UniProtKB/TrEMBL annotation:
GO molecular function, one term: hydrolase activity
Lineage: Bacteria, Bacillati, Actinomycetota, Actinomycetes, Kitasatosporales
InterPro entries xref list: AB_hydrolase_1, AB_hydrolase_fold, AB_hydrolase_sf, Epox_hydrolase-like
Record's protein name: Alpha/beta hydrolase
Keywords recorded for this protein, A-Z: Hydrolase
Amino acid sequence: MGDWSLRESLETASGTVRWDRLGDPAGEPVVLLHGTPFSSYVWHEIAPALAAAGHLVHVWDMAGYGASGMYPDQDVSLGAQGEIFTGLLEHWGLREPSVVAHDFGGCVALRAHLLHGARYRRLALVDPVALEPWGSPFFRLVAEHSHVFEQLPAPLHEALVREYVTSASRPGLRPEALDALVGPWTGERGQGAFYRQIAQADQRYTDEIQPLYPTIDLPVTVCWGTEDTWIPFAKGQELAGLIPGARLVPVPEAGHLVPLDAPALLTSALLAFLTS
C-alpha cells in the first residue's frame, strides 16, 4: 500500500490485527476506524495531519482487512470487530480517547461504546453504517451467494472489486489509492477474505444498538458526503437526530469515501471538533 504500513500487531480471537500510532506520545489520543471493503489506508492523508496538529493518532486494520490476518472460517463480523476494538483500547492503555469512525467502523465504535463499555472523549462518525436498512443490492447479492463469487477467476474478481471500490468515490480515486484499497483483496487469500467479510455482514449488529443511540452522552459529530450513493445523506440527518446534541456536518461533492474524496475538508472539520 505505497508508503503506508502498520508496524505493530496484536493477536486476537480473530487472528493477527495490525496497528500503528503517529504523533507526539504526549498528545491527546485519537483513534481512527476504517470501513469495508477498505483498510486504514483511507486515513493515510488525515492521520499525519492530525498528528501534526498535536494528536497521538492510532490506526488499525480490522481483522480480515488490509494487512491484518486473513484465513478460512475467520470471524470478521461486526460483533467480533467491536470486541477486538475494545481489547485494542485496553492494549493501548487508552481510557477515554477521541474516536473517528468511517462506514463499518462506525458500527464497530458504537458497539464497543454501547455494549462493551468503551469510553470516548468525543466521537466523530463519517458516513457510518448505523441505521437500518443498509447494504446495496450488489452487497446483498454477494452475501447470499458468496460461495459462488469466491470461485470467480482471479481477473474477474479483481475487476469486480475495482468497480465496487470505485463506486464509493464521487470524484474518482487516484490510481495509487485504488491500487492500495484493492490490493489486499487479490490473490487466493485476499479473494476468500473479500467474500467472507460480506457473507458475515448482518444488519442485526446495528439493530441491536440502534435503540440505544438516544442514550449516548458525549460530544458527537456526524460528517456525511452529500453525494454518497452507498448510504444517502438523509441517513446522516436521521442519525444526527437520534443522538442527543449531535451536529451534522455536510461534506459537499464527496461520496461515501469522504476521507479520500475530501481529505482537507474532513480534516478541518475533525480538528474543529477535536479542539472544541
